[in-house]
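Methods — Computational structure assignment.
A single polypeptide chain was analysed. Its primary sequence is given first, followed by the predicted tertiary structure written as structure tokens.
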Amino acid sequence: MSVVHRLTAGWLVDHLSFINQCGYEICDSFAYPGGVTLDTSVTSAGDCHATSTFAATSSSRDGPIPGPGDVIETEIRTAKMRYLFREEFFDVSKPHIAAAPEEQLWQGCPEVSLTEIKASRMEHREGTKSGIRDSVASARKKRKRKCVFNQGELDALEYHSKVRNLIWEGTLHLVQEGLKSGFLHRNTAELSCRKNVVPGHIGCGLAELCEMAKQFPAVNESDHQAVHVLDDETSIPEQDLLSCVTENSSNSAKIVVLMGQKYLVPPKSSFLLSDISCLQPLLSYKKKYDVIVIDPPWENKSVKRSNRYSHLSSWQIKQIPVPALAAPNCLVVTWVTNRQKHLRFVKDELYPYWSVKTLAEWHWVKITRAGEFVLPLDSLHKKPYEVLVLGRVQGDVKETLRKSEDVLPVPEHKLIVSIPCSLHSHKPPLTGVLADFIKPDVERLELFARNLQPGWTSWGNEVLKFQHIDYFTLLQNET
């Protein structure tokens, strides 16, 4: 399980372990002896160790050459290949910016008022080292700014002052449990600090492919299948992949080849690779989801400057057909950046527009392998936490009442504490933490996904991004 420790405050989560428990095992069957290849398809995990005999004509190494009509028993052997996500992407041994000694997690939670935080920032810009010392050395290299707070910064400070103690104390308790069990290690000097080098060709242009797909000839929906079920073939025509939901209903992983690149598809998963203008195949899939997780590409200044990935306006996000995809009482979870503008938009505009009632705000807290915040908690540039807003769809009264017995109460506040992946926007899995608040075997959907999970349908224009085979290592190749 991805959940290492469960306390009242929340969960300590092992993201890497969750990925590697998804079942990335592939089995190739072949004939031995005789050199006749039988089947190179991906088989179910339960079949990986099976053997049988078959009739064939081939040469024998040890016996006489068989004559016409002779039958040779040949054992079918299987080569089992297991893939693991590369561990170095979770090798976060030190904070990105070191906190002052008095701000370290195990030194206790100092009481810091909003006024003190403001004063600290002013002093820091004047070159002093007094006050809270929020370690914004990197900010000095950036453009000079006036010492006056804008309204967005004031709103962020006010919000931080409200949640600060909850985050500090809850994280401390979960980290202490992690240190006791050995999942976390205080002595980081003994831990390796490997440099994460991502091969350049992993940037495989999935978003660009979605743009190209708009030039494909229109598909007649009456003649076109809504689902492409993965079987033994690995190469899928781009038009098929982009025009319908692709499903791996087997008990083992599959490899698909797209534009010459290989991607691992976990068992019991399905996905649609498209952008927001091509959502019809997902609607044609005719599933209603009990859980919908959304990680929108929020618009902000750094995204605009870097041009690293596309972003959507608030109006575009509102057009996502969540009401058409949601089952009655569907649990909706939206990832939100620390900009209060986006948080207010989700709670005051987006959820009401989708007929979703806000229930809770949870926080994902990022820590190192030593149990420290990856950034100082009171940093004014970036925070070591992100927000999740949870709500439930309020639909037809009769249908909602009929399904109300399946609804489990959602706590107002919880923490999800984990070592973050160093790959940009690779969020921790929510399967384990949401299990306490949803019935088993429900339909689950992730929107704007960049990876796949067993038991989930995933959609996005980079939905296969972190499934690229180069993010994994081949653990073994056994027969």
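Note: The CA atoms of residues 329 and 407 lie 7 Å apart.
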